[in-house]
Design a protein that fits this description.
alpha/beta, two-stranded antiparallel ribbon, globular, seven-stranded mixed sheet, Spore Coat Polysaccharide Biosynthesis Protein SpsA, Chain A
Length: 203
């Protein structure tokens, strides 16, 4: 699949309740947490869309656009819909959205490239990454053609990515690693400290 057909989207609209403040703005080894994933995406994609409901700082690039949710308090599904609507409203030619969380500082773009190489786009309109028995619902590839169904389901109360994806029919792509550190996400201050230790050990 061609990268030119894909818009990369970083979902940063969460409330970070367990973290106690906007975790995308936390500093990890002197770098904003959100900038770790942005750094991986910026050289590979034509554009990066950040969906956030807060006034956040991030690395500068003329490739980055920041938008707020069209529908507030609809969770990650609302963020995906907002990105799809942005594509439609701005008459972009993207056929797919690649979604990434803002809180996974160890994720590398090579993992996404491997994921993409394993995808046959004729098999599904929705693909998620999987490691062992865990499905990573925010690391996904979503067809823009899902926009009408997603809008309808959001209006009918759908909020959980897991349940919605199962109803739609999602295909999972297994990604094999010796460790699952690449998908380690930060929800608490303790996990931020753990990430610091992992990064120190990698040096």
């Amino acid at each position: 699949m061609n990268f030119n057909k894909i818009l990369s989207v970083v979902l940063a609209g969460g409330k970070s309740k367990r973290f106690g403040e906007d975790k995308s703005q936390a500093k990890l080894a002197g770098k904003l947490l959100i900038d770790y994933i942005l750094s991986e995406l910026i050289d590979e994609f034509n554009e990066v869309l950040i969906v956030t409901n807060n006034s956040i700082k991030h690395m500068y690039s003329d490739k980055i656009t920041k938008i707020t949710d069209v529908k507030q308090n609809h969770g990650p599904l609302g963020g995906i819909f907002s990105a799809m609507k942005w594509v439609k409203d701005n008459k972009k030619s993207y056929k797919w959205i690649a979604s990434f969380p803002a809180d996974t500082p160890l994720f590398k773009i090579d993992i996404f490239k491997n994921f993409l190489n394993k995808i046959n786009e004729k098999e599904s309109e929705l693909f998620f990454m999987k490691t062992d028995k865990k499905r990573h619902n925010i690391f996904g590839l979503w067809s823009i053609d899902l926009i009408d169904q997603l809008e309808k389901d959001l209006e009918n109360g759908s909020r959980k990515v897991e349940k919605w994806a199962n109803n739609i029919g999602v295909k999972t792509i297994n990604m094999s690693f010796e460790k699952d550190d690449s998908f380690f996400n930060i929800n608490t201050k303790e996990e931020l400290e753990k990430a610091k230790k992992i990064l120190d050990d990698q040096l």
